[in-house]
């Protein structure tokens, strides 16, 4: 069962980091004692406990740095694999996401029920496990998730929709794949998978391999930007999740919206039999995306990027509404004809942060100036 695998994993982490746990708890207790001494003004004991606390914190940070700040030759941590070079060449001509399919604790103990913790630890340190989402980002490739990352609620919900097919969706190690036939993976533009294992899915085609990894192309993957003739508004999230988890929706023709209800006139079903046109991405950068739409009828442009605060959209020079597409992605209504759609990102929180930082620096400078004059 899944929870038993989690218990085994926690026990393994605790076993391998026992001294780290011990030192961190000693430091916390010493900190509390130091606070008590300062409050009660027992100053003779404060200095030795302060030094002891400083040593504990230093050891604690050093131990953590060994886990998250590895020191090794660049070529060992970022291997120059032919499979990665293949994907890099593909990324020069196309925009896509890559899934990294590696075994985690759930897979390992499921396939090796009698394995010991030592065997699992050796497995984690094997060469095949060194490649993960954070590593391929270094090569300029776009991953479907990240390792040890903080996920927005939408992304977390999205990848939990197919519990049976995707086995609990997200984990600290990224997206878990147990059924690569999920439509949800196709929708997020996961065009390639890199894995050390052989796959036997009909719509995954082996396109490259080297001495360690195999690259498969997902023939059912949606492009980064695509056009659909109609949108449906789903008022309740539970109903939306139910539709996304089923096979009742043809996502090549329909986009599902559950928030910011569009005007009724935009939700009228379109006659898509004679729809003709194309979508072309003219510019794609982290903070600005320009897309050209040329269709003979009104429709919806779906961009397979996350719906997130701070993004705004323009058709020509006119601002338009962005709607959450299929819960995770974003979509805008585009009238017929040749149109240029621009997505721009700017965070008001960053502006607030700049003001707060500026005020803090000015305040610190004034305090130092005041103290210097007082002396």
Question: Can you tell me about this structure?
Answer:
With 375 residues, the protein is α+β, with helices and mostly antiparallel strands. Helices cover 40% and strands 23% of the residues. The chain has a five-stranded mixed sheet. A hairpin with a 2-residue loop joins strand 3 (170-171) and strand 4 (174-175). Helix 1 packs across helix 6 (105-111) and helix 2 runs antiparallel to helix 3. The chain is globular, with a radius of gyration of 26 Å. It starts with a helix and ends with a helix. 23% of the residues are buried. The model is unreliable at 164-174 (pLDDT under 50).
Short description, anyone?
With 375 residues, this protein is of the alpha+beta class.
Unreliable residue runs: 164-174
**Which structural category do the helix and sheet elements fall into?**
alpha+beta
Taking all Cα atoms into account, the compactness measure Rg is 26 Å
Q: Termini separation (Å)? A: 68 Å
* Order of adjacent strands in the largest pleated sheet: 2-1-5-7-6
């Amino acid at each position: 069962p899944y929870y038993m695998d989690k218990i085994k994993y926690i026990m393994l982490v605790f076993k391998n980091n026992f001294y780290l746990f011990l030192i961190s708890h000693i430091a916390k207790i010493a900190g509390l004692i130091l606070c008590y001494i300062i409050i009660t003004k027992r100053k003779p004991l404060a200095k030795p406990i302060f030094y002891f606390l400083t040593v504990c914190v230093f050891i604690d940070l050093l131990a953590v740095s060994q886990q998250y700040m590895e020191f090794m030759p660049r070529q060992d941590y970022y291997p120059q694999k032919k499979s990665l070079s293949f994907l890099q060449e593909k990324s020069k001509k196309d925009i896509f996401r890559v899934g990294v399919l590696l075994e985690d604790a759930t897979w390992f103990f499921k396939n090796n029920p009698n394995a010991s913790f030592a065997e699992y630890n050796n497995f984690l340190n094997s060469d095949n496990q060194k490649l993960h989402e954070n590593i391929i980002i270094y090569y300029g490739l776009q991953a479907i998730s990240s390792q040890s990352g903080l996920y927005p609620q939408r992304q977390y919900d999205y990848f939990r929709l197919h519990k049976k097919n995707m086995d609990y969706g997200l984990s600290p190690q990224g997206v878990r794949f147990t059924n690569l036939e999920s439509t949800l993976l196709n929708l997020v533009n996961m065009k390639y998978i890199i894995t050390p294992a052989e796959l036997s899915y009909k719509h995954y085609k082996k396109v490259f391999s080297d001495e360690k990894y195999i690259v498969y192309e997902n023939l059912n993957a949606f492009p980064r930007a695509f056009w659909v003739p109609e949108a449906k508004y789903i008022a309740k999230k539970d109903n939306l999740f139910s539709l996304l988890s089923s096979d009742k929706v043809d996502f090549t023709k329909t986009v599902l919206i559950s928030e910011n209800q569009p005007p009724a006139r935009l939700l009228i079903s379109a006659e898509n039999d004679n729809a003709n046109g194309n979508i072309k991405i003219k510019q794609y950068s982290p903070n600005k995306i320009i897309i050209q739409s040329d269709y003979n009828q009104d429709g919806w442009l779906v961009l397979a990027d996350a719906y997130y605060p701070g993004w705004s959209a323009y058709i020509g020079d006119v601002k338009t509404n962005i709607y959450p597409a299929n819960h995770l992605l974003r979509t805008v209504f585009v009238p017929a004809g040749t149109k240029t759609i621009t997505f721009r990102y700017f965070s008001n929180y960053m502006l607030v942060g700049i003001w707060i930082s500026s005020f803090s620096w000015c305040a610190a400078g004034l305090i130092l100036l005041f103290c210097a004059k007082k002396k």
